[in-house]
Amino acid sequence: MSTPRSDRRRWLQQSLMSTTALTCAPLTTLAATSPAPAAGTQRLWYRRPADEWVQALPVGNGRLGAMVFGGISTERLQLNENSFFAGGPYAPPLPKAREALPKIRQLIFAGQYAEAQKLADETFIPKPGGQMAYQPLAELSLHFPGLENAAGYERSLDLAGAVASTSFTTKDFGRPSTWTREVYASAVDDVIVVRLSSTRAKALHVVLQLSAPHQQQVQIEDGHTLVVTGRSPDQGEISGRLPFECRVQVRATGGRLRSERGGLAVEGADEVLLLIAGATGYKRYDDVSGDPTAANRAVLAKLAGRTEAELRAAHQAAHRALFERFSLDLGQGPNAALPTDERIARSTEGKDPGLAALYVDYGRYLLLASSRAGTRHPANLQGLWNERTNPPWQSKWTININAQMNYWPAEACQLGETLEPLVCLVEDLAQTGQRVAREAYGAPGWVAFHNTDVWRVATPTDGSFWGLWPMGGVWLLQNLWEAWLYRRDVAFLRRIYPLMKGAAEFQLATLVRDPKSGKLVTCPSLSPENAHPFGSSLCAGPACDNQLLRDLFAHTAEAARTLKTDADFARQCLATREQLPPDRVGSSGQLQEWQEDWDLRAPEIHHRHVSHLYALFPSDQITPEETPALFAAARNALTRRGDDATGWGIGWRINLWARLKDGNHAHEVLALLLQPERSYPNLFDAHPPFQIDGNFGGASGIVEMLVQSHRGRVELLPALPSAWPTGRVQGLAARGGFVLDMDWAGGAVQRLRVQARKEGCAERCELRWAGGQATLKLQPGQVAVLERRGDQLITA
């Protein structure tokens, strides 16, 4: 739920009254292998329980998630399962679209944009005009009778260990007792684990109740397992057809277990272990015949005889194997020892460089928690976590920037495995989008627009002003292409090439000749969510479309050459690429958003989207070396657009300013993202309301300030702000198949370690830094080390 700013400030002011502090280790020098981060730097922690959802702490295994509130006498775990959406399989038809398409194009080329939009609403937007909403799965409430007068309270989220903990002490008959509650979501065992313990023997008394917003019934099985079952809700004209089940198995050491108030009660236990399993009947976007009860029983049956210590060890080993590939240290200022909410409240003081490093660590943690191989569902608008039955924007996948932004940090931070669900999403859309391409355009290949849901609907939605943008799938493919550039895995390229070819086939078939410019353009289309001066968003050939298509056609042709296939098709892609409109510089020196010079007359000159700057980031079409005039125009356009936007809009701007090589300006924009108006107490991005893409975009931007690796060169500290004169990063991946460890001082690189991946690395690593450059020739798996000697970096 969105938190009013006044309430958030009051909560922060109450938190600031406490004086507990952490001790943080100082910055150390770079080692050949990644040392352990400074104590306390990779965790979120607080002095009081969460009052609201945006103060709770998230755990997740990519499929199952929980928000942990850390209450004292009552604990709340709000649960999610990533396939649980409203409705059921549906595929909205577009029976009038193909017939109306020529008329819509005619109206657009005639400048009758409002009329074109009206006709498009009537023919290209199916009824109902929305998509299905992501749903909360269940709620687990834990009531602890008699617990009061707690002291020494602390709740925390260990990012490296992936455990949320709550601890406090009470005095019973003059004797202090310490109470500890720990929650983690194991990807290895596909279960959420809760451990309750106390230093006082036989002291644990807890009543557990399980409920769900869409419950059919709650029951107790075998005297020790709570079960809630139900079905997805109806939404609009779509009937709810997706069954779900959540079950909580209770293991008590000592004490007695009995039913109470429709739940289970544990009395006098030494320790209590809860195993939470959740599932739906989702098998595919068109198949909900799965048995969630059988799935949950199978998960829990495999855990029989396993101790909590064994479950935790397996969970943490799997998490650390991914999380500890990368580390970042930007130094620790005087605010580093404060609880996380207090650090956010004081972020404007400029005394906490470590908060930026924590933001990257949190982004990596959230990506691992919300996107894992083994599921077909990538991180959605809220990652994995949602408490509402009608969440903002249905908490689905918005694919005109937001879903793509979720994965910007993945490859650079060596979390390529998290991309697997995104590949699966694109594979599904290539199937459902094929029908839309054929039905609405009479075209081959596949198309997706600006949104989709768990049922992989590929038709336009929400109205043509927002939805009639046929480039959503094209932009998703750019994320997949980036994975190829970083990993150079030919098997992966072979997998994604049919997706690229299908998207290119559609675009080749549907581009039309602009009667004014003579260029090939998309029509109808729009510059995402932004109105031009003529009462509509619909237009022909906006800048972002041309930029996306230049990448699609070039990347598809390169993939075909690498795979030694489809030579004629590759030539067609490249020939068509040359007929696209070029980027244009407007009368005020700005990079134009549309083919016409409309930018300064547009209704929202500070619009959150900056889609015409795709060519600067995440693409590499605009650089100071190859396209200096466009580079200057991009800077002009970004300056005019302004820095203060939604959370994800700020996240995008950090990356753009980093690509503009302006580290201090990028840092100023980052400061906007870290302040209380843009970060909730649990460090979730305050869009507002919460959207997780701001977290991922911000993390990406911080990394982009340290290393950039496009256009065949690896640039060291290309946008380092003066606020980070000394630091260290390890395990940062670069395109071409290289992994870097680097430390710097006085704003200059002091030591660099470059390792080529064991498979697929490029033959040469072109390095650049302020005042120098070098070329390394590395064999797969080989390591090179450079150290500063005077004004030079030389091989150690």
Automatic annotation (TrEMBL):
Where in the sequence is the signal peptide annotated?
A: 1-38
Domain Alpha fucosidase A-like C-terminal: from-to ranges: 708-775
Glycosyl hydrolase family 95 catalytic domain segment(s): 309-706
Q: State the UniProt keywords alphabetically.
A: Hydrolase, Signal
Q: Which PROSITE patterns match?
A: TAT
Domain (Glycosyl hydrolase family 95 N-terminal) ranges:
44-284
Which GO molecular function terms does the record list? hydrolase activity
- The transmembrane segments are none
Record keyword Signal present: yes
| Entry protein name | Glycoside hydrolase family 95 protein
Species of origin reads Roseateles paludis
